[in-house]
């Protein structure tokens, strides 16, 4: 069997979480993926994965081999990218990471235009609110909301991440419209569990001496909180990009516009030695063109 393909399939099984997902990604049958993994295990003389009816887990050998496979495949991709540099034609695969709300509301709507401009580039967008290691994740570019830690990566400033407070017309008709953050003590403030300590409602409490009533409903997903606000469950404090359309159509009403948390900085990060790749260079230029700091 093609050992390189077997390594790619092994990495895909681990990354995607199942033999079925890896088989679909490579347009192979699940039994064929199993044969490739079995061939690797026979060659290495040990099990790479322990499979149960519900999940699979890397063995110690599998975890070590997974990291080595990722590095080898990255080196191969780098070599192929080097050829693309010689051709000076943007082509290849981009891996991009961003937080959930920023990626869904600010980045995703732009990607159709980018892909139309550069038909030889494919792109994988991973959205998660936890910080990831760009090397282990194999990412070409990352978007970060908030203040940055010291890093060896290039950081391009983008338009800031602004916030809004809103509620449904029905909720405000029942509970009244708050005029100052101190009024939040008499309202249901929907909690976003991904706020860092001191952010969100806590920031308003500290700045204005308010006591927002938070905690009856707490959620770690911005889109779910938006739906809760639309269902008249309380006041929501979220990214402007997530609430703007609902406010424009009257489904939500903005409140306390003069008492919002300050905008957070946003940066596009990438390793300096990767910027020479045409696929990354045109992506960075496109993002700065569309989302660059004003």
UniProtKB/TrEMBL annotation:
Keyword Electron transport belongs to the record: no
Domain of life: Bacteria
Single GO biological process annotation from the record: DNA-templated transcription
Pfam families associated with the record: HTH_1 (PF00126), LysR_substrate (PF03466)
Molecular function GO labels: DNA-binding transcription factor activity; sequence-specific DNA binding
Domain HTH lysR-type: 1-59
Keywords noted in UniProt: DNA-binding, Transcription, Transcription regulation
Gene3D superfamilies linked to this entry: 3.40.190.290, Winged helix-like DNA-binding domain superfamily/Winged helix DNA-binding domain
Protein family according to the UniProt entry: Belongs to the LysR transcriptional regulatory family.
Protein name in UniProt: LysR family transcriptional regulator
Organism: Chromobacterium amazonense
């Amino acid at each position: 069997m093609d050992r390189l393909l077997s390594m790619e399939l092994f990495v895909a099984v681990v990354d995607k979480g199942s033999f079925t997902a890896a088989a679909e990604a490579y347009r192979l049958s699940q039994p064929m993926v199993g044969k490739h993994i079995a061939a690797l295990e026979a060659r290495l003389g040990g099990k790479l994965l322990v499979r149960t009816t519900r999940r699979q887990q890397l063995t110690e050998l599998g975890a070590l081999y997974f990291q080595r496979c990722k590095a080898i495949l990255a080196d191969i991709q780098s070599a192929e990218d080097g050829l693309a540099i010689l051709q000076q034609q943007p082509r290849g695969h981009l891996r991009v990471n961003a937080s959930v709300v920023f990626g869904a509301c600010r980045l995703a709507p732009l990607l159709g235009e980018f892909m139309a401009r550069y038909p030889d580039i494919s792109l994988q967008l991973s959205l998660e609110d936890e910080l990831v290691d760009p090397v282990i994740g194999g990412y070409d570019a990352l978007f970060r909301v908030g203040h940055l830690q010291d890093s060896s990566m290039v950081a391009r400033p983008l338009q800031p991440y602004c916030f809004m407070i809103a509620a449904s017309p029905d909720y405000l008709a029942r509970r009244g419209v708050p005029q100052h953050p101190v009024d939040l003590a008499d309202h249901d403030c929907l909690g976003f569990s991904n706020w860092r300590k001191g952010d969100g409602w806590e920031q308003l409490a500290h700045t204005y001496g308010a006591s927002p009533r938070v905690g009856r409903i707490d959620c770690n997903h911005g889109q779910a909180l938006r739906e809760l606000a639309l269902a008249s469950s309380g006041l929501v404090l979220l990214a402007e990009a997530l609430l703007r359309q609902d406010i424009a159509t009257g489904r939500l009403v903005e409140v306390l516009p003069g008492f919002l948390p300050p905008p957070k900085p946003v940066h596009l990060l990438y390793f300096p030695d990767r910027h020479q790749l045409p696929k990354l260079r045109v992506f960075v230029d496109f993002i700065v063109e569309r989302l660059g700091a004003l």
